[in-house]
Amino acid sequence: MLAGVIGATGYAGAELIRLLSGHPKINELLLASVSHSGESIETVFSQFTRLGLGTLLSPEELVSRAGVVFGALPSGKGESYAKACLDRGISYIDLSADFRFDKDEETFSAWYGLPYVYPELRNHSVYGLCELNRSRIRELAAQGPVIVGNPGCYPTAVSLAAFPALAGALDIESGGVIIADAISGVTGAGRDLGRAYHFPECGDSAAPYKVGSHRHTPEIYRNLDIMRKRKGGRTRLVFTPHLGPFNRGILATVYIPLGSGSGGQCRPASEDTAAKARQIRAVYSEFYRDEPFVRVLPEGRSAATNQVRHSNYCDLSVHLDQSGMTLIVVSAIDNMVKGAAGQAVQNMNIILGFDERAGLESLPALF
After folding, report:
1. Are 164 and 277 members of one domain?
2. Which of 153, 202, 266, 314 is labelled catalytic?
3. Which of 41, 43, 57, 177 has the most CB atoms at less than 10 Å from its CB?
4. In the chain, at which residue ranges do the beta strands (DSSP E only) sit?
5. N- to C-terminal Cα distance for the chain?
6. Kindly report the CA angle at 220 between 217 and 221, in degrees rounded to 5?
7. Which of 95, 125, 115, 109 is nearest to 12 (CA)?
8. Is 153 a catalytic residue?
9. Cβ atoms < 10 Å from Cβ of 240
10. CATH of the domain at 256
């Protein structure tokens, strides 16, 4: 299979190159860049020296030759390439937000300030959170070429943390507010320069940003609401992102209020609380039993970004507060892999009928 990456000189594009160059089903890579067309990828990332990847093409030439295309472009820049891919009969996996909201142009425009250029493309698109929409992705792909809207990094980490609790096995407080605090490495901001991402500004510091207004909020809300509606109930969400002084990774701590019969007064954790936590952990383990990239950690361990670095895993650790009234789930992903390029490759594997784990089985980096 010949795969193409448009936007190969960005962080997510480079991560796609790293993953696809070792994929057992990809025998050739084509790379495109609007800003570096005609150059070698080695001049941008010396890590790819001697891989024989050739010169960077124009996006149009890449689409005319590839068998499957990844778009690692800013939101609002990829719809024309998605259309060109469909016209050629090949699938397009989009890492921007352009196809994350399906036909809901109103929500997309409200949060991203852009209209749909080709709204009819949503008849062939699917939201690509594999653990939520795997069957739908396969269904559409069986009918012909498909556009996959790859999820955002924060929505991936938060949604996977909350899904089992909302799916119906636990007693969740009706109308309770789910709170998600998440911290991301600086690569999440992309390669564009900005003062907030200079080392003197973000090194040795952690700070919230876009409080109450981050554009991933509606995507998280929609995911949780889909899962919540399987049982019935209304989702209320508060999401606050933070920038951390590290390169890659997301750690999300998600607080889910349990029903009134779930606990009592605030007091030191008891044997009853520990037993209940074990029961909930068992629910999570069962929910993700067949998921190749979600790991529910055993009692006594907490999810951490250094345990998933450079991998497509999402680690989850399950905890309860002292009263037993609040479920606390900690989620760790590599924002550049499970939060972007790795999940895109996972989606490619699904739509092309490959083993879903192909090209993604490397263990997390130790140090």
Report:
1. yes
2. 153
3. 41
4. 2-6, 28-32, 68-71, 91-94, 125-127, 147-149, 177-184, 207-208, 236-243, 250-257, 294-296, 314-320, 326-333
5. 33
6. 85
7. 95
8. yes
9. 16
10. 3.30.360.10
Q: What is the DSSP letter of 298?
A: P
Domain count, the chain: 2
Residue at token pair 């057992």: 24
More confident residue, 132 or 191: 132
More confident residue, 37 or 311: 311
Higher pLDDT, 267 or 193: 193
| Residue at 241: amino acid letter | P
Interhelix angle for 11-20 vs 342-352, to 10°? 50
CATH number of residue 19's parent domain: 3.40.50.720
Residues 245 and 289 in one domain: yes
Question: Which residues are CB-neighbours of 286 under 8 A, at least 6 positions away?
Answer: none
Closest CA relative to residue 87, chosen from 102, 114, 69? 69
Sign, Cα dihedral of 279, 132, 247, 21: positive
Amino acid at 102: D
Residues 6+ apart with CB under 8 A from 50: none
Residue 360 in any domain: the answer is no
pLDDT digits (tens, 9 = 90+) for 151-188: 999 999 999 999 999 998 898 888 899 999 999 999 98
Residue 158 is which amino acid?
Answer: V
